[in-house]
Amino acid sequence: MTGSGSLNITSAIVDPALLDLPWNLPLDTWPDDSIATLPKGISRHLVRFAHLGGYVVAIKETSADIARREYELLRTLQRIDVPCVEPVAVITNRTDDDGNGLDSVLVTRHLKFSLPYRALYSQTLRPDTATRLVDALAVLLVRLHIVGFFWGDVSLSNTLFRRDAGAFAAYLVDAETGSIYETLSDGQREHDLEIARVNIAGELLDLAAGGRLDEDTDPIDVSNGIIAAYRTLWTELTGSQSFASTERWRIAERVERLNELGFDIEELAIKTDDGGSQVRIQPKVVDAGHHQRRLLRLTGLDAEENQARRLLNDLDAYRSTHVDGEVDEELAAHEWLATVFEPVVRAIPRELKGKLEPAEVFHQMLEHRWFLSQNESRDVPLAEAVSSYIDTVLRHRRDEATVIDPPTGAFTLPIAIVDEDDWRDRV
Amino acid sequence: MASVTFDKASRIYPGQARPAVDKLDLDVADGEFLVLVGPSGCGKSTSLRMLAGLEEVNEGSIRIGDRDVTDVPPKDRDIAMVFQNYALYPHMTVAENMGFALKIAGVNKEERASRVLEAAKLLDLEDYLGRKPKALSGGQRQRVAMGRAIVRSPQVFLMDEPLSNLDAKLRVQTRTQIASLTRRLGVTTVYVTHDQTEALTMGDRIAVLKDGILQQVGTPRDLYAKPENVFVAGFIGSPAMNLFDADIVDGGLKFGTATAKVDRETLAGASGKKVTIGVRPEDVVVAKSGEGLPVDVDIVEELGADGYLYGHTDVDGNRVDIVVRVDGRVHPNAGDKVVITPQPDHIHVFDLESGERLSKKAVETSK
């Protein structure tokens, strides 16, 4: 299907299926059989989704320089373990069948089970969901700033969200305006934060204008929330703290507090002042994924941070009630995996596997079991809770592996729409 | 509105030997459109970010009007970073898209409406205020995005390569719009680009930077007619100025078999027996034979009335590329051998070692 012999593909993943896409056609004219319909945010460039050898890719048409730059940035972010979409390829030198040049494209892999914020409500976006999205975005922004990434266009639209045990985990989607520095200045961080605040307010006001925001949600309050969430986390992760040298337990306390927030301290600076009577500590290198790493080490399961926390809680509870206290952690984890987690996952009928990720199913099933037990004032056994959850909850959810619908709202063609409202009522 | 002053402002990154911006002294007048231009890594974006408050100023200071903003957080500087990627929200009207940032800032409804209307008049968007972005053309959407910045009535607009992600046609259109709009508004604007054509067409004045050091600041005409050093001479103008070495001889300069008269006063400042001379492609005379610098013609690019001859010559055993403007219809062809001489009085002379300009006079271009 490729129309040009000089097509240039730079790709980290050698996938010959890339050659089968119709690169000789402008993206807006691609035939339906190549296109997957997925919801997306408000985009500057035309972005479409296509099936590629068993997975879905997002294809963005842009200039060669921008595509290459963003590809490299995303590769760097991936290498340093920042949650972002996976870059697949940059394709330049595209021409149509008459030899006319076409825009270059950046291909990224669609993140399975990820959702744009516009797909996270059926009728209207509720205030608690909006707040959780903003909280997730604040965590992502702090992580990006810690590694020296200035985003330049922080917004809900440029982020994808994965469910994470009642919260959300945010992934960077659009790095076009970003740059990596050795470290960021306070001014750069403040600027990103201000951009985030204004963009989130704009996005929520837009939902409100379209009748898609719950009446109890104040767009400006919610968008202001990112400032506080960001600052609290930033201070916890990077702030220095002084105490008397007799209070050394405060070091352990700080480490635990960061662990609780999901971070490990890789490097801690410790200084003594005033002839040794005062100690000052400051985390120098922190690494997200405290619970994720522990879960992975014990069980081999790869989950989001809060899911991992939830699973570990269940594992620890299992260990304290079912296993002899002398048995080591690894053995107990192995037993929990075989007798608790895996039976739950296996119980999900094949046709429901695309609804949610296994770790999220497990989390929701635990919640369900808790509610059942509350209602019936008895300990509902696991097997009973699982079948009840599958039949009364999971079966009725939509598939979220690759969400289809609501259709995308990108505007690429000018369409004349005359609005009768007086604009003065709407500023 | 306000002026902007960089007062020996430096940005030094930790662990870097050379400052990214080195003692920048620059005054931007109230209402002026100043372009910072230079190759990648020259410090232009860093300078703009220092003004925006995104980069620390390690030495010196920056003032907006009379106010020292060196340590003021970005959002309190009363500047607007206008960037190309403002999203337009599809369910909001043009008026809402332009005014919502004021709403967040707590500006009351009446004031919002009046500021939005004022901006819309300037942007020729008055008739579209009640419409949704879908109903607008690409250029109109760009103007709505500008409107978002204008309604805040900042003291200074800052633009960092704002056109880089537009296609060529929209870029030229938007370039013109931005330049005329900021002049109508009379807002001081600092604009960063790597593209010297963009700089020449947009700026009231242009500041050329290289390796963190300001090379020259002046009007487009100043830079074109009187580049202060070899770097500016080669950077400003497209195709670039021809630059090659020549020997100082009695009464002037010798290159190839030709000599050119250059007054003694100019050459007295030279540090050696050679200088670098610069001649713009439009200031060269081409002949089939005779005295001058022999040039082998590689290719001739026809552009209608004019054309450009690209060739090469040999100066002291080194290959030097030469570009000459020629008639678009009657011209030598690839493979021909020609002889070139600079138009008298159209030679820029630079010191071979320091690269500094030796000619006192500006060289206005022929035709």
UniProtKB/TrEMBL annotation, chain A:
<dbReference type="InterPro" id="IPR011009">
    <property type="entry name" value="Kinase-like_dom_sf"/>
</dbReference>
<protein>
    <submittedName>
        <fullName>DUF4032 domain-containing protein</fullName>
    </submittedName>
</protein>
<dbReference type="InterPro" id="IPR025111">
    <property type="entry name" value="DUF4032"/>
</dbReference>
<dbReference type="Pfam" id="PF06293">
    <property type="entry name" value="Kdo"/>
</dbReference>
<dbReference type="Pfam" id="PF13224">
    <property type="entry name" value="DUF4032"/>
</dbReference>
TrEMBL record, chain B:
<dbReference type="InterPro" id="IPR040582">
    <property type="entry name" value="OB_MalK-like"/>
</dbReference>
<dbReference type="GO" id="GO:0140359">
    <property type="term" value="F:ABC-type transporter activity"/>
</dbReference>
<dbReference type="Pfam" id="PF00005">
    <property type="entry name" value="ABC_tran"/>
</dbReference>
<dbReference type="InterPro" id="IPR017871">
    <property type="entry name" value="ABC_transporter-like_CS"/>
</dbReference>
<dbReference type="InterPro" id="IPR003593">
    <property type="entry name" value="AAA+_ATPase"/>
</dbReference>
<dbReference type="InterPro" id="IPR047641">
    <property type="entry name" value="ABC_transpr_MalK/UgpC-like"/>
</dbReference>
<protein>
    <submittedName>
        <fullName>sn-glycerol-3-phosphate ABC transporter ATP-binding protein UgpC</fullName>
    </submittedName>
</protein>
<keyword id="KW-0547">Nucleotide-binding</keyword>
<dbReference type="InterPro" id="IPR003439">
    <property type="entry name" value="ABC_transporter-like_ATP-bd"/>
</dbReference>
<dbReference type="GO" id="GO:0005524">
    <property type="term" value="F:ATP binding"/>
</dbReference>
<dbReference type="Pfam" id="PF17912">
    <property type="entry name" value="OB_MalK"/>
</dbReference>
<dbReference type="InterPro" id="IPR008995">
    <property type="entry name" value="Mo/tungstate-bd_C_term_dom"/>
</dbReference>
<keyword id="KW-0067">ATP-binding</keyword>
<dbReference type="GO" id="GO:0016887">
    <property type="term" value="F:ATP hydrolysis activity"/>
</dbReference>
<dbReference type="InterPro" id="IPR012340">
    <property type="entry name" value="NA-bd_OB-fold"/>
</dbReference>
<dbReference type="InterPro" id="IPR015855">
    <property type="entry name" value="ABC_transpr_MalK-like"/>
</dbReference>
<dbReference type="InterPro" id="IPR027417">
    <property type="entry name" value="P-loop_NTPase"/>
</dbReference>
<dbReference type="GO" id="GO:0008643">
    <property type="term" value="P:carbohydrate transport"/>
</dbReference>
<dbReference type="GO" id="GO:0055052">
    <property type="term" value="C:ATP-binding cassette (ABC) transporter complex, substrate-binding subunit-containing"/>
</dbReference>
